[in-house]
Amino acid sequence: MTDMASIETVTLEVADPTAARRFYTTAFGLDTQVRLRASEAPTTGFRGFTLALTVSQPATVNGLVDAALDAGATSLKPAAKSLWGYGGVVQAPDGAIWKIATSAKKDTGPATREIDEIVLLLGVADVAASKRFYVAQGLAVGKSFGSKYVEFAAGTSPVKLALYKRRALAKDVGVSPDGTGSHRLVIGGTAEPFTDPDGFAWEAAAPAPTP
Questions:
Q1: Contact (Cβ atoms closer than 8 angstroms) between residue 201 and residue 186
Q2: 6, 2, 3, 1: which is closest to 151 by C-alpha?
Q3: Taking a C-beta distance cutoff of 8 angstroms, is the pair 113, 63 a contact?
Q4: Quick one: 199 exposed, middle or buried, by C-beta within 10 A (0-12, 13-18, 19+)?
Q5: 153 exposed, middle or buried (CB, 10 Å; 0-12, 13-18, 19+)?
Q6: What is the strand order of the sheet 34-38 is part of?
C-alpha cells in the first residue's frame, strides 16, 4: 500500500521574506510550518485561500490575535463568539488571511500560544468537482458536507487541507470574493507536481532545511 498523498509544506510567496518570517514568528510562533519565498507576482483582492489556526480556548485566540495586530496585521473580523465557538480574522502584512478560532465557548485555564491544528482552506468554484480531483490525486476524505465543505485526512501532515466555496470562504473571513492574479501560494506534497481546477499549484516538497 502506498502512502496517502498529503501536504508536507505550505509556501507563501511574499515581497519580503525576512519581514514576513519576523511577523509569523512574533505573531503566531510559526517557524517551520510555513515557508516563505520571494515573489512579485501580481495579485489583487481575495487570493482564494485562508489559513486557520485552531486553538483550545478563547483566551488563546485573543492572545494570538493581539500578537498579530501588534506585529503589524490588520483586523478583518474582531474576535467574537459565534454559533460554532469563538474566533477572529486578521490579514498579515504580506496579504495572507489568517483565522484564529476555537470550538470552546469558555476558558479552561490560562492563555497559551499553543496551536492545535493548522488548516489550509482553499476557496473553490465547485466543491464536489475539486473533491473528486483531490481524491484522484490520492488524498483521503476525512469529513464531507456535500457540496459545501470537504476536509481531507491529515495523517502525519503538519497542515490539514479543506475545501470551501470561494464566495462562502470570503464571507466567512469578511472580504469581497473578487480577486485576480496569483494566489501567492504553493503547496508542497508527497505526490507529483500538479495544478488543481482553481489554479492552486502543488510541487514536490523539498526536505526541510537543516538548522
A1: yes
A2: 6
A3: yes
A4: exposed
A5: middle
A6: 34-38, 7-14, 185-189, 201-204, 194-195
* Number of helical H runs and strand E runs in the chain: 4, 15
Query: What's the first-to-final CA gap in the chain, in angstroms?
Result: 33
What residue type is assigned to position 80 of the chain?
A
Going from N- to C-terminal start, the domains of the chain cover: 7-204
Could you report the per-residue pLDDT of 175-192, keeping only the tens digit for each?
A: 999 999 999 999 998 778
The predicted-structure confidence for 161-179, as pLDDT tens digits, reads as follows 999 999 999 999 999 999 9
Q: How many CA atoms lie within 13 A of 44 on its CB side?
A: 2
For 68, the enclosing helix (H) or strand (E) is helix 58-70
Level-2 CATH architecture, domain 7-204: Roll (3.10)
**71/96 Cα distance (integer angstroms):** 14
Rounded-to-integer distance, Cα 113 and Cα 5, Å: 29
DSSP string, 14-44: ES-HHHHHHHHHHHH--SSSEEEEE----EE
> pTM of the entire structure?
0.93
Cα–Cα distance list, 146 to 34, 141, 142 (Å): 30, 12, 13
Determine the Cα–Cα distance for residues 130 and 147; give it in Å rounded to an integer. Answer: 10
